[in-house]
Design goal:
By secondary structure, the protein is an alpha/beta fold. The chain has two domains: about 140 residues, Four Helix Bundle (Hemerythrin (Met), subunit A) (Up-down Bundle), CATH 1.20.120.420; about 200 residues, Rossmann fold (3-Layer(aba) Sandwich). It has eleven helices and 16 strands. The strands form four sheets. A seven-stranded mixed sheet has the order 6-5-4-7-10-15-16. A four-stranded mixed sheet has the order 11-8-9-14, with helices on one face. Strand 15 and strand 16 form a beta hairpin. Helix 2 packs antiparallel against helix 3. The chain is globular, with a radius of gyration of 20 Å. The two termini are about 35 Å apart. The mean pLDDT is about 95.
Length: about 350
């Protein structure tokens, strides 16, 4: 299966197209962003969850900067620079937890500062950079899958949380990339529905059905039941940011799964590219946790099931301590029992 989470269309009016993940699986809709929309349009797409998943957000941000540059390519160099600065700022503010966003914007900033050409030439260079990051992400995901697949034993039953598949990346997936790579020898996948935004129920279940990988959807509070029955052999999740000490921020509910895995002696793996590892963030306590709106908790897709006046808390992510992580699966290999020294070694040339 090839899912084009994002795609760039060249032509008289270049555009970025992204699958609108808010309406899957009921409808399949591609949202379009042109130079007229610029970075602000892509930032709205990121903030409102048209696109989500740390790697996909990073690639989308790079395309957003390319659109901003195309929008401003006829301006004077000074006004062009101002326009890019504005676009970078609005994208950086769109979602705070996924470090891939800042990583991608950092790559774009370096490219801008290194380029001595005209605004038009810089705009063309940013389009090429976004396309390169897109290709790199898919290759990285496949490498993660290759390293992670041997960790899953023959006929393993695997549990995953949220969506870390093709839809969360530029293609293939991180946690689901591992599962895809192990498709021939695993038996079954348990899919947490992932309250409150239901990424597991809506997106992961949809991807696994397309891929014809045997799977069963469960509510989040059923996981311990199946662990206790010996029906879960491994847990594989993605990540939005990994701190330098190995603490992992991922979709809310991940921490609870890690605790349950420890209690039942089940290996707990995190699949993430190096761009998700933030060596400037000392521990998980320093990771900003996004608070999202109340409407995602009291209902979904226009249906409300809680009292309108009820008080709501909605942290979108939680932090799993490194001591609960069996291993982090990256494109450069698996880091067992992650800590600062081991993660730092990944970045050595």
């Amino acid at each position: 299966m090839k899912v084009d989470t994002l795609r760039w269309i060249d032509g008289a009016t270049p555009r970025l197209e992204m699958i609108d993940q808010r309406v899957l699986p009921r409808r399949f809709v591609m949202q379009r962003y042109t130079p007229r929309d610029g970075a602000a349009g892509v930032a709205r797409g990121i903030k409102t969850m048209v696109v989500r998943g740390a790697p996909a957000i990073g690639v989308a941000a790079a395309y957003g900067m390319a659109l901003q540059a195309l929008q401003a390519k006829r301006l004077s160099p000074a006004r062009f620079a101002q326009s890019l600065n504005k676009g970078e700022a609005v994208l950086a503010a769109s979602r705070p937890t996924a470090v891939n966003l800042a990583w991608a914007l950092g790559r774009v900033r370096k490219a801008i500062e290194a380029h001595q050409g005209t605004p038009l030439e810089i705009a063309d260079a940013l389009v090429r950079l976004a396309l390169r990051l897109h290709r790199e992400d898919i290759a990285i995901n496949r490498a993660i899958g290759k390293h992670g697949a041997p960790l899953l034993k023959q006929d393993a039953q695997v549990l995953t949380h949220c969506n870390a598949g093709a839809l969360a990346t530029a293609g293939y997936g991180t946690a689901l990339g591992v599962i895809r790579a192990a498709k021939k020898h695993i038996a079954h996948v348990w899919v947490d529905e992932t309250r409150p935004f239901l990424q597991g129920a809506r997106l992961t279940a949809w991807e696994l059905l397309q891929e014809k990988i045997p799977s069963t959807l469960i509510t989040d509070n059923m996981a311990a039941h199946f662990m206790a029955r010996g029906q879960v052999d491994a847990i594989v999740v993605g990540a939005d940011r990994v701190a330098a000490n190995g603490d992992v921020a991922n979709k809310i509910g991940t921490y609870g799964l890690a605790i349950l895995a420890k209690a039942h002696g089940i290996p707990f793996y995190v699949a993430a590219p190096l761009s998700t590892i933030d060596m400037a963030c000392a521990t998980g306590a320093s990771i900003p946790i996004e608070e999202r709106g109340r409407d995602e908790v009291i209902g979904h897709a226009g249906v409300t099931w809680a009292p309108r006046d009820v008080k709501v808390a909605h942290p979108a992510f939680d932090v799993t301590p490194a001591k609960l992580v069996t291993g982090i699966i990256t494109e450069r290999g698996v880091v067992k029992a992650p800590n600062r020294a081991k993660l730092k070694a990944l970045f050595a040339d």
